[in-house]
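Structure (tokenized):
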């Protein structure tokens, strides 16, 4: 981050100096950095797959979790639409397939047995990321 983005913290907090930004000063540097990563063009996370338009030198991602989710595009075996006659459309995530069915096959129910069967074919866990979960008490 360049020094011109942060004002003197003793005078009035941490102010975003991005042109055209009217955000109030932030109480700490963490809040300013969070604002910058969400509302401005900072995209520090890149897909590790060479040649991907989201890899280094490409578009990238604002948030790390978006980059991890994007990895399914490369790693997922894909979810095939059971209603398309050509069966050539693969969707990396179940929600992508569900949206496709909702838009292009409006006559099909979300609980259709063919769709449920495809969605039940979960790929093995690809990410070794941290899982959130409540402990048993």
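Design, position by position:
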């Amino acid at each position: 981050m360049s020094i011109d983005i942060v004002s003197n913290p003793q005078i009035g907090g941490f102010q975003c100096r991005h042109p055209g930004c009217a955000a109030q000063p932030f109480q700490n540097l963490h809040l300013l950095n969070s604002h910058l990563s969400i509302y401005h063009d900072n995209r520090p996370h890149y897909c590790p797959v060479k040649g991907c338009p989201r890899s280094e030198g490409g578009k990238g991602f604002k948030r790390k979790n978006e980059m991890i989710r994007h990895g399914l595009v490369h790693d997922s075996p894909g979810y095939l639409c059971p209603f398309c006659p050509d069966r050539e459309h693969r969707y990396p995530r179940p929600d992508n397939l569900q949206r496709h069915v909702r838009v292009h096959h409006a006559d099909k129910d979300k609980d259709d047995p063919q769709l449920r069967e495809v969605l039940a074919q979960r790929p093995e866990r690809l990410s070794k990321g941290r899982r959130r979960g409540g402990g048993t008490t």
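Reviewer-requested clarification: Confidence is low (pLDDT under 50) at residues 1-7, 125-131. Residues 68 and 127 are 8 Å apart (CA to CA).
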